[in-house]
UniProtKB/TrEMBL annotation:
GO biological process, one term: ergothioneine biosynthetic process
Organism of provenance: Streptomyces liangshanensis
Lineage summary: Bacteria, Bacillati, Actinomycetota, Actinomycetes, Kitasatosporales
Keyword field: Glutamine amidotransferase, Hydrolase
Record's keyword annotation contains Hydrolase: yes
Domain Glutamine amidotransferase type-2: 2-251
EC numbers on record: 3.5.1.118
Top EC class of this enzyme: hydrolase
Catalytic function, reaction form: gamma-L-glutamyl-hercynylcysteine S-oxide + H2O = S-(hercyn-2-yl)-L-cysteine S-oxide + L-glutamate
InterPro entries hit by this protein: EgtC, EgtC-like, EgtC_Actinobacteria, Gamma-glu_amide_hydrolase, GATase_2_dom, Ntn_hydrolases_N
GO molecular function: hydrolase activity, acting on carbon-nitrogen (but not peptide) bonds, in linear amides
Protein name (record): Gamma-glutamyl-hercynylcysteine sulfoxide hydrolase
Amino acid sequence: MCRHVAYLGPPVALGDLLIAPPHALYRQSWAPRRQRNGTVNADGFGVGWYAEGDPVPARYRRAVPIWSDLGLTDLARVVRSGALLAAVRDATLPGADGEAAAAPFAADRWLFSHNGAVGGWPASLADVARALPAEELLSLPAQTDSALVWALLLHRLRTGDEIGQALADTVLDVAKAAPASRLNLLATDGEHIAATAWGDSLWFRAEPGHHVVVASEPYDDDPRWREVPDRTLVVATRADVSLTPLKEPLP
């Protein structure tokens, strides 16, 4: 399992969201409060952010626990952004992919993270993977369940699906093939945040017209945080947040 967070709003220092709050993502790496599976998220971390005037995000990822990277504090103090996605990782299975397996995954203008696990991986998604072009399968950034879920989502995005629809359809396809999966997905293009609650906790905090945060769990005790019901799609902009129930796929 993992923990992740996405933000849209006025530019802030990365550390103001990821390190400074009392229950920030930094602390969630060793002391999450609402994580239902796993206890320590020490198998890597990453943050992706957008600079003003550039639609393609930058990323900083490491295969080490977030608390062991002493350079992150300086980076997070001086880098400011109005749109970001960050995650700490608890690996589903042991592997040698290292930094390549740490979210956020990125392509074009999109960032993506997966909080959960695909049941029966990898056999369960063999048929689903065959629907992807060979070039896309050969371009997987890591040999993990999250990387394949990202490839499925990216394929939909590049063929023109809107981010919310693409995320929902990806979850339903994977859940149909692997019903035991936990599929809390989080994605952004710098203007929208899309997320799914499917098997683990998901929360959001919004001040319409100003900012929105979507996260695995609240990073403070502000009463404005709202929990997202399980089996729900969230699509948010700086102006609005919408929640749409997701139906369980038929066997």
